[in-house]
Design a protein that fits this description.
The protein is of the alpha/beta class. Helix content is 40%, strand content 26%.
């Protein structure tokens, strides 16, 4: 049974969304506040969370972070009136997988929900290694030179993508398309790379190299910067 959590303070809209995505094999719960949503997340396992941004007691970002902390492989879809690129970048940094702005068409919402639910994690080939870097994306764990490294979801996804393609150079636009999959600026890529460098740096060694005129690549043997 697939379980979905809808977090929306507009009760009429919440009812409409729940009825639209409800199927015989899908159980949909609704929460009208961050507090209620976090409580439901703590006691139930959801495959997908659909979040509004503006909620009575806080923002959907808090729900997103808590959900991703607990669910690991669960997906998040923001459904909000906030349409500027700054809000989208903030949502993706918090860990959202998709972003749909209001007003919206129910058919598009259903299509996006179905697409996110099809992204089932596989138990095969869950370990990726690149030199002293080890990523277990089934357990959402990163180790570098034997020490655990804590990453936010966006940075984890970027690092996994680069580790699966070691030494290959990727431009910012290509990374946006492959990792973010939504409209974000190249600034989001630079910020993510900088965070990864800070987390993965050992002395002056750089695991992620900048290639002039090209983009970024992950190297097997970090070189001094």
């Amino acid at each position: 049974m697939t379980r979905i959590l809808v977090v929306e303070d507009d009760k009429d809209l919440a009812t409409m969304v729940c009825e639209a995505i409800q199927t015989k094999s899908t159980l949909v719960d609704c929460a009208n506040s961050v507090e209620e949503a976090v409580t439901k997340i703590s006691i139930s396992n959801y495959d997908l969370a659909i979040l509004d941004w503006n909620l009575p007691d806080a923002t959907g970002l808090e729900v997103c972070r808590e959900y991703k902390r607990k669910a690991k492989h669960g997906s998040v879809l923001f459904l909000t009136q906030r349409s500027s690129i700054d809000y989208k970048e903030e949502a993706y940094l918090a860990g959202t997988d998709d972003y749909l702005t209001k007003p919206f068409h129910l058919n598009e919402l259903i299509a996006r929900v179905n697409s996110l639910l099809r992204r089932k994690p596989t138990r095969e080939h869950t370990l990726v290694t690149c030199g002293s870097l080890l990523i277990d994306f089934s357990a959402y764990v990163v180790h570098y030179r034997g020490r655990p490294v804590s990453l936010i979801p966006t940075d984890f996804n970027l690092l996994t993508f680069l580790a699966k393609n070691p030494s290959q150079v990727f431009g910012s636009r290509e990374l946006l398309s492959s990792v973010w999959r939504q409209s974000c600026s190249q600034k989001a890529v630079r910020q993510s790379v900088n965070r990864l460098r800070q987390r993965l740096r050992l002395g002056k060694n750089e695991l992620i190299e900048s290639v002039r005129g090209g983009g970024y690549r992950l190297v097997d043997s970090p070189r001094s910067s």
